[in-house]
């Protein structure tokens, strides 16, 4: 109980700084065009909750935000010509923010109010529940980052992707399409989150020496395990997203406009349409949310075998 109140006191002390930092980044994202007004407001609230948990959580969130925002803007005018739903400049609204952060925000709340831990060292034998939450948090952002990197870079590959369910070539921008560049990008996106979290583990936990003494661990083993888990989350999360996209998302080709459409409402009267794959059950935001949720749970479970 004493540990819980000490942790709560530290969290409350971090709140003013968290509000300041998140406010600056939300304003920065809005001014730079990475977020629209609703996206900036929703990012503000999810950011405060995440940063309230501590610097490690905040650092992972910001690592995902900046890397994905940069790649979303990268050659966005070319992506717009290929995929009709791509917004030039990469502005995210509140739906996109929540679909990529809701699971992690809930995990952050659980870590803050339902555990007594202040450090982010993962050791299932010492504390299974908290370790599961931390591994799930890593898995969530590894999935989101890996999928974003794969989507934003894979669409720029020279060759046509293949559909994950059939192996047949499909137009660029098709939901469930795989390319070598995209797969490599998903691995690198997960790896980036793993390296970021390992950095946090090494530098941000040193303020809690008493807790560190109680946990049996080595930084080398932690780093290797975190990177393996995050890389797994990036690749597998992206594949889960692709599988859902190929089956539960609609992909249509406008033959005359040569763009992929993900919504029948975007079909124009003059369009000559060819069905590529999927059914109109989920949209892209729902797929992102579900794939990151599944990956988070999966990584929470798999973490028990490698930590």
Automatic annotation (TrEMBL):
What keywords does the record list, in alphabetical order? Membrane, Transmembrane, Transmembrane helix
Localization in the cell:
Membrane
UniProt main location, coarse: membrane
Question: Coiled-coil intervals in this record?
Answer: none
Query: At the top level of its lineage, which domain of life is listed?
Result: Eukaryota
Report the membrane topology from the UniProt record: Multi-pass membrane protein
Any one Gene Ontology cellular component term annotated for this protein: membrane
What residues form the membrane-spanning segments? 12-30, 42-66, 178-204, 224-248, 287-306
Tell me which family the UniProt entry assigns to this protein.
Answer: Belongs to the TMEM19 family.
Name of the protein in question: Transmembrane protein 19
Q: Which organism is it from?
A: Dictyostelium purpureum
């Amino acid at each position: 109980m004493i540990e819980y109140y000490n942790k709560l006191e530290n969290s409350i002390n971090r709140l003013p700084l968290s509000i300041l930092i998140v406010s600056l980044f939300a304003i920065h994202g809005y001014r730079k065009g990475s977020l629209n007004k609703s996206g900036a407001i929703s990012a503000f609230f999810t950011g405060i909750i995440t940063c309230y948990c501590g610097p490690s959580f905040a650092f992972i969130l910001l690592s995902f935000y900046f890397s994905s925002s940069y790649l979303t803007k990268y050659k966005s005018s070319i992506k717009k010509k290929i995929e009709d739903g791509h917004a030039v400049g990469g502005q995210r609204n509140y739906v996109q923010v929540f679909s990529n952060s809701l699971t992690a925000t809930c995990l952050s709340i659980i870590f803050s109010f339902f555990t007594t831990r202040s450090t982010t060292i993962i050791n299932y034998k010492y504390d299974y529940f908290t370790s599961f939450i931390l591994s799930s948090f890593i898995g969530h952002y590894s999935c989101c980052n890996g999928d974003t990197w794969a989507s934003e870079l894979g669409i720029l590959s020279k060759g046509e992707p293949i559909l994950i369910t059939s192996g047949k070539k499909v137009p660029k921008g098709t939901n469930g399409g795989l390319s070598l560049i995209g797969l490599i990008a998903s691995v690198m996106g997960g790896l980036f989150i793993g390296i970021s979290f390992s950095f946090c583990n090494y530098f941000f936990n040193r303020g809690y020496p008493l807790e560190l003494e109680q946990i049996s661990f080595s930084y080398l083993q932690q780093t290797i395990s975190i990177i393996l888990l995050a890389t797994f989350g990036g690749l597998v999360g992206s594949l889960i997203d692709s599988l859902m996209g190929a089956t539960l998302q609609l992909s249509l080709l406008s033959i005359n406009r040569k763009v992929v459409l993900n919504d029948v409402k975007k079909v124009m009267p003059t369009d000559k349409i060819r069905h590529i794959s999927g059914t109109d059950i989920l949209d892209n935001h729902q797929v992102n949310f579900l794939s990151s949720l599944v990956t988070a749970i999966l990584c929470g479970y798999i973490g028990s075998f490698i930590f």
